[in-house]
Amino acid sequence: MTRFDEPLTKVLDPKTAKPLESSLNITTVGELLRHYPRRYAERGELTALDALEVDEHVTVVGEVSRLMRKPMRNRSGTWLEVEVVDGRRNTIYLSFFGKVSHMSESRLKPGARAMFSGKVGRFGRGDRAKWQLNHPEFELFEESESTAAEFAAAPVPIYPAANGISSWVIRRAVAVVLDTLGPIPDPLPADLRARHRLTGLAEALEAVHRPRDQGDIARARSRLKFDEAFVLQAVLAQRRQAAAAWPATPRPRRDDGLLADFDGRLPFQLTEGQVAVGEEIAAELASAHPMHRLLQGEVGAGKTVVALRAMLQVVDAGGQAALLAPTEVLAQQHHRSITRMLGDLGTGGVFGGTTVTLLTGSMGAAARRAALLDAASGAAGIVVGTHALLQEHVQFADLGLVVVDEQHRFGVEQRDALREKAGDGRPHVLVMTATPIPRTVAMTVFGDLEVSTLSQLPSGRAPITTHVVPAAEKPHYLERTWERVREEVGLGRQAYIVCPRIGDLEGDEGDLGESGAEAGDERRPPLAVLEVAPMLAEGPLAGLRVQALHGRLPPEEKDAVMRAFSKGEIDVMVATTVIEVGVDVPNASAMVIMDADRFGVSQLHQLRGRVGRGGLPGLCLLVTEFPAGTPARGRLDAVAATLDGFELSRVDLEQRREGDVLGAAQSGRKSSLRMLQLLRDEDVIATAREEAATLLTHDPELQGNPALKAEIDRLLGDERAEYLEKT
Predict the structure, then answer these.
(1) DSSP secondary structure string, 28-97?
(2) Which residues contact 91 (CB under 8 A, 6 or more apart)?
(3) 464-642 architecture in CATH?
């Protein structure tokens, strides 16, 4: 009998096993059985030959009356035509080409009775036109027509295929494996299966690959979806338990420290959400085990203040805090805003405060040495930086808290490198994102983190009005766009113009990865900052102070542009998505996003969050050439219709494959999910999470369930488990 972990080379012939490995990376029996059908084709009801319709997928029963070899019209060689009759003077012709024609000729002999399944065609003209099936599936039989009816009712599995291996070859390989498969240990406990009315694993695999009807498929999918959710949640539950046992230096809150002084000087009142989340974080920082918390919130919900209060609590307790930002522009912005918020509390102990140090890769040698010394000596209580913080020679005196801003922009190894700088213990970790996360993603991608959400915007945030500008359909709308920008500037306000690209295509930063253009799009290249900025300055925005900002500018020039814009010395800033997060200019009230269809939904929501931050009503105009009714236009309409980032996050997830969420986007690996869909299967994920947590509470090492442990190792693998451990 075949084992689940047995190599396919021992079960299948080399002509099948080799392409499965080379084209689909399938090497074992279990991997093949986990390569589920992508969809199912219906053979349809048994169809009488006198009731055929063109393009209908039918299954007919007939008898082979004759075979004819015919020459190819436009090239050498022949093809096989098979005449089939139904006993009622009705005739249909089957066409086979290439190697299939020779295999079919050897099996289909005059007098043979069979079932034929395929799409109906019609060839010839007028009354002489004939019914035809091209390359139909067929099965010879000598049994009753009831067998034919059973065959016709069974759905035909269609597998994800690749160059070198077709769906029907995979289907035959699966049949060989199923016919020789021995007993399979079931990773789901019997009582759990009974509670949720789930079929056994062996029955589910048989039903998903060789279903008799749609009921078989539904039952199999329910079981296999639960498997995927349960295994993933079991791994995450293990990670949460392990994290709870790791040591960390407690950083309790002081009543007379920097945090108390800071709170007393705040010029505004914290929202209820900020207070509640702050209490959660404060309690975890005081624990002897490391905090692992995700802080998500709408654009402008005040996450930075929450993070700063946590950093001050750690500094009060004698530790240091590091804030890791994805870009130099954002790191500089954080450094400025934290320094501004702290005032004289950030002047290095002169008034009982702490030093706030900036460390980036482009700093001059002297400034860099000073920053490194501040971090290593402990003089800097707060160190803000980019990837430069991750370098080996960067050391901390006592790193107690790591804050990661826009965590999705950092790889696992990068985050882990900073965490290792805490010495013997582990630092507390707070990761922040302004991209709202659907609940199912929070339970999967971030399932080993506790999640806090800030949904309440601070008082003083003005509403943002968003409109789609169909530039191709209504060119005068684009003209009106530039008039609106001039009007805003005329009121003493400022504006952003966002472009997808810097300049020349080669070596460009190309911020099109999240959504990009439509598949097969052959339009012009996306608009570029270096093209649009002079065009506007010399044309519709002539006379205004227009300045470009992009990632290829020298760091000091980028910083100078941002400072000038913050001071109101620039009217209109034409930029790439370098201003997507963290940039806070209260006087900026308008944003125009060129080629808005080139950006993802969440990215557009992030971008427009740069306006309406200072009490001024915000205006966001999404310029596109796509007409109404297209998917790209639909995304823009969705953004214009709501300011609810959580609603838009679901729209965004619907546009993307599950692997983008759970695979390369997070771990650099292909997703292990095959059937589970994050949005549609929320109830399955939530149930699996509860069941996994209960099971792992009683059996953390899964000693009583070796089948589940093996399933975890097989599905996620060493690399995936290592990723989850580092997260």
Answers:
(1) BHHHHHTS--SEEE---SB--GGG--TT-EEEEEEEEEEEEEEE-SSSSSEEEEEEEE-SSS-EEEEEE-
(2) 49, 65, 83, 84, 85, 130, 131
(3) 3-Layer(aba) Sandwich (3.40)
pLDDT digits (tens, 9 = 90+) for 90-101: 889 999 988 888
Beta bridge partners of 82: 67, 94
**Which amino acid type is present at position 561?**
V
Q: What residue ranges do the domains of the chain occupy?
A: 49-154, 258-285+302-433, 464-642
Query: 56-72 b/e with 16+ CB inside 10 Å = b?
Result: eebbbbbebeebeeeee
pLDDT in tens, 582-635: 577 889 999 999 999 999 888 898 888 888 877 788 999 999 999 888 888 988
Judged against a pLDDT cut of 50, whether residue 182 lies above it is answered with yes
Q: Structure tokens of 163? A: 């160059």
pTM score of the predicted model:
0.65
Do the first three CATH levels of 258-285+302-433 and 464-642 match, i.e. the same topology? yes
The percentage of the chain sitting over the pLDDT mark of 90, rounded to a whole number, equals 36
Sorted by sequence, the CB contacts under 8 Å of residue 471 that are 6+ apart come out as 477, 478, 623, 624, 625
Q: What is the structure's pLDDT at 150? A: 64
Name the strand (E) or helix (H) holding 232: helix 214-245
Does position 409 have pLDDT exceeding 70, yes or no?
no
Q: Which residue, among 405, 431, 270, has the nearest Cα to 332 in the 3D structure?
A: 405
223-272 residue pLDDT tens: 999 998 898 888 888 877 877 788 889 999 998 889 999 999 888 888 88
In the predicted structure, residue 143 carries a pLDDT above the cut 70: no
Domain 258-285+302-433: give its CATH superfamily.
P-loop containing nucleotide triphosphate hydrolases (3.40.50.300)
214-245 vs 706-726: helix crossing angle, rounded to 10: 60
SS3 166: coil
Strand-strand pairing, 137-140 and 113-123? antiparallel
Q: What is the b/e burial string over 566-600, where b = at least 16 CB atoms within 10 angstroms of the residue's CB?
A: beeebbbbbbbbbbbbbbbbebbbbbbbbbbbbbb
- In this structure, what are the phi and psi dihedrals at residue 516, rounded to the nearest 5 degrees? 75, -175
Superfamily of domain 49-154: Nucleic acid-binding proteins (2.40.50.140)
pLDDT of residue 577 exceeding 80, the answer is yes
